Amino acid sequence: MPANRFHLSWFLQGSSIQAWGAPWTGNISEQWMNPTMFLDLVRAMERACMDYILVEDSIYIGQNWKNSREIFLTNGMSVPRQEPSVVATLMAAATTRLGIVPTLSTFAYHPYLTARIIGSLDQVSGGRAGYNMVTGSSDLSGQNFGLDQLPEHDHRYEMADEYIQICKQLWGSWEPGAIVADRKSGVLIDHTKVHQIDFKGQYYSSRGPLNSGPCPQGQPVIAQAGGSAKGKDFAARYADTIVCSAKGVDAMKAYRDEIRALMTKYGRDPDTCKILFLISPVVGWTQSEADEIQARRVAEAASNLDVRLAQLGWSTNIDFSGFDLDQPVGELSTNGHQFSLAQFLRKAGKSTLREAIVDHSTSGYGLSLVGTPASIADQLDECMQAVGGDGFLIALPDVSRRSVATITDGLIPELQQRDLVRRAYAHEQLRDNLLEF
Ligand SMILES: Cc1cc2nc3c(=O)[nH]c(=O)nc-3n(C[C@H](O)[C@H](O)[C@H](O)COP(=O)(O)O)c2cc1C
């Protein structure tokens, strides 16, 4: 196995209409209820031997712009958005090797329910389920569940600690070999191997055992995206894969080094958690084709500042509508995604809000990648060599069958020819494929 191989996965921004109005999105506005486009996406990913699809989620309609839902509804921004576990199940049925990782927010699903949904997904997919564990970021989502506001940021992670322990204990409530299926004696399940957990926490409690039965992977894969100090600590203790939006090679390396040191502190082997960095490659068959796509994106962002700022407000929980576009952004804080906001502010520096938001919307997450399959493959290879691993999470702002093909049928074959990514799955289950290299 070449030492510099890395993993590739996909970050799908919710089961929503993607990129309404963008080129090559077909009749998505009429056909979105049946997610055939996402099923085509996962089949293409599996053909390209990618590790997993992470289906992002949020459970509210945005209102972080002039305290109104108008801009979000008018432009179809993360709405309509379907329940990710439903779409994940269809994705599992459309594939045989790809990992399927839906997001379930801790405040919205009791841990017993999460353990049952993810456990069932692990069963129906033959051991390919993961759970993207998020604690939420918007009071608007909490209000859909009867909460005035979400608990404070760090407090959410303390609650998440209990939450994940319940999930893990429930998945472990069936010992291996509990299902004996002995036709002669008529015993299906050995009752001595199925246990109550009797977890009594400060925030959550559960009796167990899990009634949906054992998971093929034993414990489904845990994905996490902690960026704050509390978040990183949590991820280092529990995650099998971490998705990170660090900007630039140095920030990626610093993040990975820190997580690996924390894992060692907690007695975990750092190689058992794969850290994937968010990227958004603009792939053209020639450099000028890629430059043209990128120029169009920048022009589109510059002419749609309200929409772009509303989008940033959505993830940072800040209403930017009253801000002066021609002043520096200044200091801001949030009870939402602290890391996303910190990244935005660091990159913005002294530039005006107008400049900062265009850059933020078009600079492509972790690395600036605008080029041909060959030139982007060079950049990804160099980046991984400098960072030390473990791979990338692809997120496109304009998901369409055509843009997906630029990755799965353009960039990835180039990476495969260089032996930088896998050409065939070695295993049937998600964790085994993640641990392959
Ligand atoms: C790639 C990626 C995917 C994420 N997916 C979700 C998601 O689906 N739902 C959500 O509420 N938050 C999501 N987040 C936000 C994280 O859960 C987390 O709040 C964020 O990374 C900031 O970390 P912090 O809360 O420790 O500051 C995601 C973040 C990243 C980088």
UniProtKB/TrEMBL annotation:
FMN binds at residues 57, 103, 153, 157, 228. Residues 31-390 form the Luciferase-like domain. It comes from the Bacteria. The keyword Hydrolase does not apply. GO terms for molecular function: monooxygenase activity; oxidoreductase activity, acting on paired donors, with incorporation or reduction of molecular oxygen. Its EC number is 1.14.-.-. InterPro entries: Diverse_substr_monoxygenases, Luciferase-like_dom, Luciferase-like_sf, NTA_MOA. Keywords: Flavoprotein, FMN, Monooxygenase, Oxidoreductase. NCBIfam families: FMN_nitrolo. Belongs to the NtaA/SnaA/DszA monooxygenase family. This is NtaA/DmoA family FMN-dependent monooxygenase. It comes from Methyloraptor flagellatus. The lineage of its organism: Bacteria, Pseudomonadati, Pseudomonadota, Alphaproteobacteria, Hyphomicrobiales.
